[in-house]
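User: Quick sanity check before I run a bigger batch. Here is a single chain. Can you write out its predicted 3D structure?
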Amino acid sequence: MVTPGEESLKRTSLFDSHVSSGGRMVPFAGWEMPVQYSGILDEARAVRSRAGVFDVSHMGRVETRGRGAGAFLGRVLSFDAPGMRRGRGRYGVICDRGGGIIDDCITYRLGAERFLLVPNASNLEAVLRWLARWAPGAGEVQIEDTTPATAMLAVQGPQAVEILGEMAVDDLTAIRPFRCVEAELSGSAALMARTGYTGEDGFELMLTAGAAPEIWERLVERGVTPCGLGARDVLRLEAGLPLHGNDIDLSTNPEEAGLGRFVDPDREGYVAGEALRRIRCAGQSRLLVGFFMVGRGIARHGYAILDGSEKIGHVTSGSYSPTLDRNIGLGYVPDRVSTPGSRFQIDVRGRMVEAEVTTLPFYSRRRT
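Assistant: Done. Predicted structure follows.
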């Protein structure tokens, strides 16, 4: 039986690979995506202990090129895009003129005037509209959505680089974090970026849609665990990474979300600069914090945070952490209870459960 709207869901080129591997498919941001295979906790542990592979082809891929592409992106991104070196990647936010977060994304500089933005799946259309609004006229800058023609895989974990190195022509160990290179992987051309959303080492691979199933199969043959969106969400939360739509959105600004270090509001021509300067000068009445649950219970998105009988905030993300064997979460609270060690209560289905603020990230991998 087809549920309403199911027939219109998009599928990545790896759909058949997911089904044959036992992936449980669910709707997500207009796509039919695997939420899990063997189980969310098992998959999260596999990434922390060895390596896992995620199909993240639902993420947007927007190429911006042409004379003045760097200067144009410098107007809409939160950092100095023209100052990026070729082969570099940078995390940043795209803010509206009031300072609200349209999306957070990574931008890669592929050439002198050629850039690749990777926005969240649910925000791709909003990002494209925002770029089009500020694009210079006369066709100086071309903005192309390459998402339908390409695929994107994330191979993450302590053994990810070693395993990918067996399949690549280039020496992947020489590629530093937040660097990218156009390389050959098992006979297929791929843009390989040493980035990720799990808190582990690894690469995100962007290649033609048709080449993705074979690369997926070869990774699995080498013992890389297929992982779904459920494990990805647990891992990013352990790493203290925000999720747009949960922890950040148009109603939040980078300062209160702890992303101020990724924003330079003083650049001339930056469309959100005036609002973000005003926000920074005014200070924040609330802040996004990480917390451990002291009592039993998992804090879910939307649960109320209280100080005694007073509601002071809300949970934005929460889960059991298999790495730490604790229940963890993120939420917005007043500045007065935002320091590590501060305590408050969370309404878990009518039961008040104690929680304690901690430093972020919850988990940080060991670096050799």
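Confidence is low (pLDDT under 50) at residues 1-5.

User: Great, the batch can go ahead then.
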